[in-house]
Amino acid sequence: MFTQPIQNAYDVVIVGARCAGATTAMLLAGLGLRVLVFDKSRLGADTVSTHALMRPAVLLLRRWGLADRLEREGTPRIERTTFVYSDDTGSESVAVDIKPRHGVDALYAPRRTVLDRVLAEAARDAGADVRHGVQMLDLLRFSSGRVSGVVLRDEAGDVREVRAGLVVGADGRRSKVAQLVGASPYVLARHATSCAFGYFQDLPIDGNRWYYRPGTGAGAIPTNHEQTLLFTAVSQDLALGPAEERDNAFVRVIEQSAPDIGARLRAAKQVGKLRFFPGMRGYLRQPWGQGWALVGDAGCMTDPITAHGITNALRDADILARTIGSGGDLSAYQMARDDLSMKFFELSDRVASYDWDIPRVQQYHRMMSQEMSREEEALISMEIASASAA
Ligand SMILES: Cc1cc2nc3c(=O)[nH]c(=O)nc-3n(C[C@H](O)[C@H](O)[C@H](O)COP(=O)(O)OP(=O)(O)OC[C@H]3O[C@@H](n4cnc5c(N)ncnc54)[C@H](O)[C@@H]3O)c2cc1C
To answer: Most CB atoms closer than 10 Å: which of 92, 102, 171, 183?
Structure first.
């Protein structure tokens, strides 16, 4: 396909084109800004992440007309989440049906190969210049120190400079933009979860299933291609042992924490290899400065045990784009992000400590559910405020 060359200047250049970057690009291009968003990976490439979306994420995807598109791409509707709590004294299941509210009547867990591609295509449809196979090498600055653009290596391998009114780092937890601008974390988690996950056929399940047993977590999530994602989670301090032991450890944790799934595991067909994430402590970083901003994991990473990173990324893309669109001070973005992130972040850190018994983790889950309702209401209020200001 013929592509126009990358221009020399844009209103906004976004580094990273997955859930945070592609979404920010889609929203800013929708406001009429000239936007370049690029990623060093290829369109539709996978990444080390599971993919459960929480209600606030689905609310936004519905608003943007993308939830139906995910369904058309074969992403199953998830109408029930079951929490299974067990310890040596017994087991308790708590099933929560998704209550239709604010247009959300199901959750989704789209493969990242699907979600990130759909978001990138939506950014392109909104008018953003979307590129893959393009890597940011450095930032450009005015003599005042203000960021003024990026140095990138384009699809042909040529190194070039592109000017921008604002550079947005949506380049994930190892953000080079954050590193180059010196955006240091001002909140740091104390704990980190080590995860393993894989995909299985012939293992149908009724909605999301989350399993909690002192010391471990596990989950089963229906996803695209009629597959079920299984994951295990343990404290980073315990990890899952040496590489050759990890596959066995995965099966052991599933059998112990999720015996109903464990009993069906040997008859199911594993698709591809298991993937492992060694764990990394979460943080909140300073998300803006002179000529730059951070969105998604680049600015705020929450432990994966509570499956909220993509929801954060979509939410913060929405808040950042609104703030830019209203010509507002980016400190308003930071305030809103922190207000909606801090408590959930702290609760995730407590779950990631694995230093809980069942009543305590149930209490954390109730508190997280309240936080997600608050998050959903905040997103609705922002939309109403923007509509009445227009
Ligand atoms: C094991 C695991 C399980 C998880 N499970 C869930 C879950 O179930 N639900 C959930 O909501 N969240 C989950 N998360 C969190 C979720 O993966 C992240 O929050 C989410 O990916 C953040 O999106 P992002 O767009 O900010 O960054 P990323 O998805 O990390 O994307 C960053 C992009 O930037 C690109 N990039 C980086 N540097 C450059 C450069 N110099 N030039 C060009 N491009 C660059 C990268 O190629 C990458 O594509 C999980 C995370 C892990 C590790």
So the answer is: 171
